[in-house]
Each structure stands twice: as structure tokens, then as C-alpha cells.
């Protein structure tokens, strides 16, 4: 197959996953307290999503910040949906305890949050994508 498509100013190879040359446009996020960036690179599409909340909420967790990066695999749906809803799952779990929690409790809450998020994503994602956080 010798067909080539134009994507982000770069030609895509016959292998639909990769470009002939990398897309080096960067997306940068942050302020004076934090920063991170994203670059598509050799992949045909950028499958990564991120989310940050400063403060995490305006009540019990107002002194906390939330940062997440979701590395998409084989599509964008899982990473996109995870980025859109993980804070709601985590906040729901944190609000079941008071703001003065122990380290072990926090670890358990984070683990339970990811398990519940995974169950939910399996129900709503319609493609074969995946993600790591």
C-alpha cells in the first residue's frame, strides 16, 4: 500500500500508526507552581490526555492539588474518558473520610478509585483503546 495522507503537516506512512516524520508541536500547561507538556512525536495521533485541578475542590480538599496524565494506547477514548471523570471518582472516595487521613488510607482510596474507574470505563468505552496513568 503506497497511499499517504497529510496529517498535522506530516505525511503518514502506510503503517497507520506512525508518521514519516515526527510532529514536534508541543502543548504546554502550567503556571508559576507547576508545568508539563505534551508532544505527538512519531504517532499519527496524540492519544494522551491530562487534567489538573488547583485546588482539588473548594471544601475539604482545598489545600490539595490534583495532577494526572493518561497515556493513551490504541486510540483516545479510554484516556479521554479517564481524564474527564477520574477526579469525580477520587473526590467521591475522599469525601467519605475526613480531611485528616492517614497515608495508608490515601493509598487504599487511590487503589479503589482506579478499580471503580476501570469498571466504569469498560462499560462506556466503545473502541479497543486503553490507557495508563
Automatic annotation (TrEMBL):
<dbReference type="InterPro" id="IPR001932">
    <property type="entry name" value="PPM-type_phosphatase-like_dom"/>
</dbReference>
<feature type="domain" description="PPM-type phosphatase">
    <location>
        <begin position="33"/>
        <end position="133"/>
    </location>
</feature>
<dbReference type="InterPro" id="IPR036457">
    <property type="entry name" value="PPM-type-like_dom_sf"/>
</dbReference>
<protein>
    <recommendedName>
        <fullName>PPM-type phosphatase domain-containing protein</fullName>
    </recommendedName>
</protein>
<dbReference type="Pfam" id="PF00481">
    <property type="entry name" value="PP2C"/>
</dbReference>
Amino acid at each position: 500500500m503506497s497511499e499517504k495522507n497529510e496529517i498535522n503537516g506530516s505525511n503518514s506512512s502506510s503503517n497507520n500508526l506512525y508518521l514519516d516524520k515526527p510532529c514536534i508541536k508541543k502543548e504546554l500547561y502550567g503556571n508559576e507552581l507547576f508545568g508539563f507538556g505534551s508532544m505527538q512525536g512519531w504517532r499519527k495521533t496524540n492519544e494522551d490526555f491530562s487534567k489538573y485541578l488547583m485546588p482539588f475542590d473548594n471544601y475539604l480538599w482545598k489545600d490539595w492539588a490534583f495532577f494526572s496524565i493518561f497515556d493513551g494506547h490504541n486510540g483516545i477514548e479510554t484516556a479521554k474518558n479517564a481524564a474527564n471523570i477520574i477526579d469525580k471518582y477520587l473526590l467521591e472516595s475522599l469525601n467519605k473520610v475526613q480531611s485528616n487521613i492517614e497515608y495508608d488510607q490515601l493509598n487504599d482510596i487511590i487503589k479503589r478509585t482506579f478499580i471503580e474507574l476501570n469498571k466504569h470505563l469498560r462499560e462506556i468505552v466503545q473502541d479497543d483503546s486503553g490507557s495508563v496513568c
